[in-house]
Every structure is written in structure tokens, then in C-alpha cells.
Amino acid sequence: MAEITAQLVKQLRDKTGAGMMDCKKALQETGGEMEKAIDWLRQKGLASAGKKAGRLTAEGLVDSYIHTGGRIGVLVEVNCETDFVARNEAFRSLVQDIAKQIAACPNVEYVSIDEIPPATVEREKAIAMGSDALKGKPENVKEKIVQGKMDKTLRELCLLDQPFIRDQSITVEELIKQAIAQLGENVKVRRFVRFVMGEGIEKEEANLAEEVAAQIAAKEAPPAVVEAPVAETPEPAVAETPEAKPAATESKPAKSKSAKKKK
pTM for the complete prediction? Predict the structure, then answer.
């Protein structure tokens, strides 16, 4: 097997336009033989993708995918160079595959590793450095272990580094490179958003033990004594005293004239 040097990788890149990592992998897969490496890249659809990587992508498609049951939804924007390709069925199928890929990857937050904020990188590094597994190890060994853990963690956050759900032998990045070779235009995933039903809403989870204890206590508690209301004795009614009326004056009967004469 020929030694795979940086110069050999550069030669393959100049001949094919493929990315440096793709060229290195092609040489590794073919034992360092240039012609076989070129054929390998062509079979993977990577031979011309690198030449188109820097071209402007101002057209494209915004597509959506709703997973069965409506619990997960995805919106994704994928760009290409021309409206002609944007209306191509192969391009539309690629965008739909990418949307499904995002739905299937709950940890993915960024398109590529270049988009990860420095603060996130530093936080992951601090977590890796604080691992108990590093205690007692030399500093140079620690650096290698930490770098390996960080690379793995950060790549899990990136869409392009995920194994393609329909073909685990390639990544999403390699899938896109194949599409570039097939369509003859540069293709880029610009942005995406993944929705999960109920995400961010805190649900109050009942404690089963506490709930059972409360039910038992309610059953064992003695029945509450309900006191009958005391009827109020009505106050006796006060009889009203009738107002005194003036006594009637008795009138004496008048004597008749005949009685006076007899005297």
C-alpha cells in the first residue's frame, strides 16, 4: 500500500475537484492508487462536487415534513443555483429526504460544525476536561482524549455529519455532494427548524406514592361530625297598649214641664 501523503491527496484533489477529506478517504479505500481513487470518487458522485462548492446559491426550496402522528414537524431551506434545478424532481426529493433526516435527529441543532458558537465549544471542552477518567493522566494524553470527545459531541449536533437515515454508509454531507454531481449545481442546506409538540411546556407530574397515601388517608379519616344548627327562640311580641280614650259624660235626662207643676 502506497503511503498516503498530503502531496498525493492534493494531486487527487486537483484532478477531481473533490474535497480534501474525500480525496484522502478515496486513497485509503484504494490503497493509494490514483486511478482507482478517481474511479472511487466518481462512483460516489464526489469527483466534481468540490469544484462547485464555492458557487452562489440564490434559488432553492423551503419544504416541510410532519412526522406520523403530528408530534414532530420540520421546516428546511435548501438552496441551489438556478430555478430550473429548484423545480427538478431529484432536487425536491433531496430536500424532502433532508427534512426527514432532521426529524429523525433530535440532537441536531446546526447545519455544520462551523456554525457552532464559540461559547458552546468552550462549554463542551470544560465538560470534557472535568471528566473523572482524566485524573492522573499526562497532559498530552488528556488533550487527545478531550479533543476526541469534543469532536464526537460537536458532530452529533451537526446535520451534515449525521449518517443518512436511508443509507448509513454515507453522511448527509456525502449525500449532498452526490446530488451536486448529479444536478450539476452547487447545493447547500441554509437553515432549518425542528418542532416537537409540547416542547418547552412543563407538565406537573403527579407523585404516585403521594397520591396513594392521600387516598388512604382520606378513607381512614373519621367522618366529620356535622352540628345541627340551633333554632333561635323568637322573642315574644310586645302588645301595643291602646291609647286611653276620654270617658263619656253621662247626661241627666231633662225633667219634663209636667213634673214641675205637680210640685
Answer: 0.60
